[in-house]
Amino acid sequence: MSICDNMPKIPLPRYLREHGDEIQHIFDNAGKNADTWHYDASVWQKEFKDNSEVSDDLSEITKKYPDRITRSHVQSYARKIRPGSYQGIRRLFLACMIWGYGPDPNGQANTKLALSAPRLKAVLEKSVERIKNTQIKKAYEGFELAGCGPAFFTKFFYFVGHEYQIKPLPLILDSHVANFLRFLGSGEGWGLSLFAKTGLKGYIKRYSKGYMQYICSMDNWAKELGCYAADNIEYFMYKKDKELEKALGEVDGEGNPEVPIIFHRDGAYCLKCGAFLTSPEPGVGFTLDKIKGIVWRHGCYDC
Ligand SMILES: [Zn+2]
Question: Could you tell me the distance, in angstroms and rounded to a whole number, from the CA of residue 244 to the centre of ligand 1?
Answer without folding.
Answer: 16
